[in-house]
Write a structure and sequence with these properties.
The structure is a homodimer. Chain A is an all-alpha fold. Chain A contains 32 helices and two strands. Chain A is globular, with a radius of gyration of 32 Å.
Chain lengths: 711, 711
């Protein structure tokens, strides 16, 4: 009947608007039941369960069989880690797989059969699940004793396919690959030509003299290639050239030429190319997000305009305001936006909306969120008004900064004075008394500010929240100290009592005081700019970080499997290897590992004494097992390329992009102190984005696989 | 008289046009004698003498008293270097100073008294000369025995003040300093806050256990600061964190936080800021160059329009074509431009030029130089025409590339096969025979190409010149080999004869063959783009490199003076220190030196065995002399900041700028194979430059201190 039809249209409009808000594709089934399933699938609970499942399956690696979750990393003092019995982690895995199977079925059903065949991500999802389940069955049938577990390498795929932002970023990265490959090819040509030069230049001489350069670095082709590759990371510079240099200074020209060409030119060219390529693709992906939003809104308009209650109009379609209000009440969206749209709707005098008006109404979604702080309390008493003026004034805040600085300086002075003293000679009284005084001041400052601004206004500023929280923690710590150790007095050096010794308590308080000093940041203009840029970057970086986690996870598991045979004699430190690289995913560390790894002439025991970290065991054990040596080389070089070369350059590109946009924006308008803008990658590009035309939207709508529009 | 006036005007116009061509300021005296002096001063001979003088005075450092110009750098095998007698280098210096005094007098006279007081560079020049001369007198009166020689540090100033491009670049760098200082301040805050944290975190515990982290890296404030500063260069990572990490894994969070914040965010932010700031200033400086050019042309127009032979016109001023032709004949400029301007003048039907027409005529100067290759010879014989078609076809070039690749592969195979053989087992016959064959092919290829293209056309391509030159050298080497060692035959292993042994000859030939393989570059599109970008970069980089040389020279001389007392006991290796840093001015090395320097716990003898380079002596001697220790630290950190942080970032900014412009340009128009553009930094920005308006030009002209315009 007409009523049921109308309900369907309303529900469709609700879902399309929610799609627009979340930048989702609208190409899904639109019948009543499917819409209910769709809204249920994208409800918070469902998505939360899915995220939790992904987290659990990824976190399994930390407790699975080659586990090493212990506090110390020193194998000599460590207790053996807990190993779960066979079947425990496997049953958790099965539960996760069941959730994923439900997920993929619902997703496939919702987009429909035809779309399913076009969607490569869904196909890959199903394939991954099938492979994982088969591997799981094999694993159980061997009672968890088999070594190669492919499903572990595949796990990060579940994280990848669940985030549309990550898929988009991956697409961007994928598009820059040809250019990156060109530069990497160039780098390979550079490397191989110089390797040949080096082998000819540092060849074994016929006169029988021992040539240290040849023996050390250019003995054969793999050695030469390795030496120069490591030189490209600047890690064995200048060791690699010292023997030749001490024979004849002119040999250094070869190394300088190689370093300048490879490191200064080609490596930075890679940055330039990635920046240039990536800039365009980021904009493109944001542009397609905008298109999705406009398309969702337009689809909602089209279905609402075919409601029977609307008078038929041959020329143009309209939507009645009543229908839109009904839709809006049911749509799940940010309450601020909803209120703003409602307000505009009430201000509108007409009772029908054209497509353009409808679209304009929802532009509220694209706007910056402007945060208004609650007003200060109004005091009647003249004295209180004066107090409010004095303690609400910025100068009072500056005074607080000066006091915090004084506190830092006093701690610093005490540290310098105590540096050379024996622990037994140290007097804790001075620092205790000083900190007691300063913490009282901080408490007073907080209370006076709350008095002047009112609690609500005080808490609405992030800097005040930070400040207040730390002050309260400091106060609690100080009271705890006094409760356990009594009030400070000269010669205050009590024995260990309670949870922490007095010295530890004082250290903790001092660290918090140093941390609290960061409150000065918003007061310094340039620093505030830098910090907001960094915070924006962190927001926009989530997709990148996700992809890094995916790549890293796959790499670490591959590493564990690859080096399993080599590492077995040293006990279950295989996963350590994983955690170790995890902790040092910053590229800086990898460089060093590669060097250590390639320094084949080192004395094992010397390094053992120096470092005492298990990674050294792993690496040197790998070295002694000659068979895996080459695999390990390729593995490390691949990881260096991905983490140090490509990822760092992508990061630099993103930072350049963010910073330059921000800087340009700063020059255009001065930031107002009371308004805080929340920027996302979409808003950053707003000035350069193109609005999709009506024709494009309608053409796309008519291509919708499930929605039949009347006209 | 009128004739003399006319001659003066003509001469003025000539000089103004030459100023415009060279982007020089026109604010100099314009009377007849001064103009003669001006043209003489800027003549090639004069400028060449000046450049030679600057080169000589800078090169003096290599032979001056603490000299170490020897082939080997190993102090054990080295003969003592030649030390010039007192008075030799000093008299050369005096000659140079005399040239500089003449230079500064002419320059000061030419710009006039009023302008002189405004010109800070000239004042600094005179001041430098006075200080240098006083120092020279002091030096001679002590019979060259005094240690501190200020004039050596001042020497690079002569290089700096002679290049307008370097002065401009310095101005750009100077303008970015406030922003750089902000980030460096931020870095300092970051460093000091983390130092305090570290000192509190890794404090000496009261329980008396030896804490390796504390002992090794955080014993007191300077130690902690140094450890974290070196961590910022990623050089002591992960050594610095291993003791803490092996105690408790959670300590690594501190180091990761420090590295990510400092190294990934702040350091890259510095790149972003320098790129953003520098981009604008480079454009600005190019804009001011354009203004100078337009101003020079306009000034020439104005003086020519006041020639008496031109009919007076109250409304607008005109220049007669005859006068311009007379000027053009005497102007020294690129012959291609001159011909183009002459051609346009002849095509112009009118006999007078307005200001706009005059300006337009000289726009030829801004245009890209388009290089036309001479035509191929036209053969009558049908056979020769076929030959010409076959060997002039690109496919013949590709065949040559394939043959070159085959040669490289064969050399590579022989090298791999010979790698493990003893020199006595090696058979030179195979390589000799192969190379003989390939070199014959190269010769044939060259001759056939010359036949097909004609010698002139062949030589007009840079790739052919490169190819031909190498082929000729290879041929000569091969003939020389045969002349000395006879034709190759199995078991061809003759004894050492002539200048080089057979093995050295073969190696040299092979290296040239590898080098010749670079001819494939223009055939690969992306590689060609990268290489042209790099070549452009080198052109635009001269000013930067000059400033680096200036800074480095001053640094090296300061280092020699600073560490003189410390290094005396080891003989005259002071200047080695200078040369050593000179050879490794790339930032990469400095990092390592700083590390070696700060690794105070190393065993002297172990390092001596490992490196055998005198820099190690210097550094460890410095360490043993505690007094200079702090100075050395500050010196190294300053050099790290300048060479590794600031200069490398400036370089990256320039590379990004160049590459992105080039890339955008490539997308706009496809490069034609027969036309080669010569790009400069001016041409790169042509699309975004603004033409100065008539009013701006006239206002500037009326401000000219020596030129009185009639109207």
């Amino acid at each position: 009947g007409t009523g049921a039809d109308n309900d369907l249209y309303i529900n469709q409009a609700i879902v399309f608007i929610e799609d627009a808000i979340q930048y989702r594709s609208i190409n899904h089934r639109v019948d009543s039941k499917s819409l209910w399933l769709y809204r249920w699938y994208y409800s918070r609970t469902c998505q939360w369960i899915l995220s939790l499942t992904i987290t659990i399956i990824l976190a399994l690696a930390f407790i699975e069989k080659p586990s090493s979750l212990t506090i110390t990393s020193d194998v000599r003092y460590r207790l053996p880690a807990w190993n779960p019995p066979c079947g425990l982690t496997e049953s958790i895995e099965l539960l996760c797989f069941l959730v994923f199977m439900a997920d993929v079925s619902v997703k496939s059903y919702l987009i429909g059969w035809e779309e399913f065949w076009k969607n490569k991500w869904l196909m890959a999802y199903i394939l991954t699940l099938i492979v994982s389940l088969s591997d799981w069955i094999v694993s159980l049938s061997f009672f968890c004793t088999e070594g190669v577990r492919i499903r572990r390498i595949l796990r990060p795929f579940f994280l990848l396919q669940n985030s549309s932002m990550m898929k988009k970023t991956l697409k961007s990265i994928n598009s820059t690959l040809p250019e990156m490959a060109s530069v990497l090819l160039l780098l390979a040509v550079h490397l191989s030509l110089f390797t040949m030069f080096a082998m000819l230049l540092f060849a074994r001489t016929k006169d029988g003299q021992p040539d240290k350069e040849w023996v050390g670095y250019f003995r054969n082709l793999p050695d030469s290639l390795t030496s120069l590759l490591v030189l490209l990371t600047t890690a064995n510079n200048p060791d690699v050239m010292i023997p030749a240099y001490s024979k004849n200074r002119a040999y250094s020209i070869f190394f300088i030429l190689f370093t300048v060409l490879g490191n200064l030119f080609l490596m930075n060219l890679l940055t330039a190319i990635i920046y240039n390529q990536f800039r365009g693709y980021l904009l493109k992906s944001v542009q397609s997000s905008l298109f999705r939003r406009r398309l969702g809104i337009r689809a909602a308009f089209e279905v609402l305009s075919s409601l029977k209650e609307t008078p038929a109009n041959t020329q143009q379609s309209y939507v009645s305001i009543g229908a839109l209000l009904r839709v809006l009440q049911k749509v799940e969206m940010d309450s601020r936006c909803k209120q703003a749209i409602m307000r505009s709707l009430k201000m509108c005098s007409c009772d029908q909306l054209s497509a353009a008006q409808f679209q304009k109404l929802f532009e509220e979604l694209d706007k910056d969120a402007i945060k208004q702080h609650p007003p200060s309390p109004e005091y009647q008493s003249h004295f209180m008004q004066k107090m409010q003026f004095a303690f609400g004034h910025p100068y009072f805040g500056y005074l607080g900064n000066v006091v915090a600085l004084a506190n830092i300086v006093s701690i610093c002075v005490v540290l310098v004075m105590d540096a050379d003293k024996q622990p037994s000679e140290r007097d804790d009284f001075f620092l205790g008394a000083i900190n007691c005084f300063f913490i009282l001041y901080y408490l007073l400052e907080m209370l006076l500010k709350i008095l002047a601004m009112g609690l609500k206004r005080y808490l609405s500023y992030p800097s005040n929240r930070f400040d207040g929280l730390l002050t309260v923690i400091l106060l609690i710590l100080e009271i705890a100290t006094f409760a356990v150790y009594g009030f400070p007095h000269p010669g205050w050096r009590p024995e260990f009592m309670g949870l922490l010794s007095l010295w530890d308590m004082v250290r903790l308080v001092n660290m918090l005081i140093v941390f609290r000093f960061l409150r000065i940041i918003p007061n310094m203009k340039f620093m505030a700019l830098v910090v907001t840029t960094l915070l924006d970057l962190v927001k926009n970086l989530r997709a990148f970080a996700g992809i890094l986690v995916v790549v890293f996870y796959a790499f670490a598991i591959t590493g564990i499997m690859l080096f399993e045979g080599a590492v077995i004699p040293l006990g279950n430190i295989r996963l350590k290897f994983f955690i170790f690289i995890f902790l040092f995913q910053t590229s800086f560390y990898i460089k060093k590992v590669v060097v250590l790894y390639f320094k084949e002439k080192c004395d094992f025991m010397a390094f053992f004494d120096c470092f005492q970290a298990e990674v050294i065991y792993c690496l040197f054990y790998l070295l002694s097992v000659n068979l895996i040596c080459r695999w390990a080389k390729i593995y490390f070089v691949a990881w260096w390329l991905i983490s140090s070369v490509i990822w760092v350059n992508l990061f630099v590109a993103l930072l350049l992009e963010n910073f330059i946009h921000k800087w340009d924006r700063r020059c255009h308008r001065e930031p107002l102190s009371d308004i805080e803008y929340q920027r996302t990658v979409e808003l950053m590009f707003r000035d350069v984005l193109e609005e999709p035309t009506e024709e494009e939207l309608m053409e796309k709508l008519h291509e919708h696989p499930h929605l039949q529009l009347c006209r």
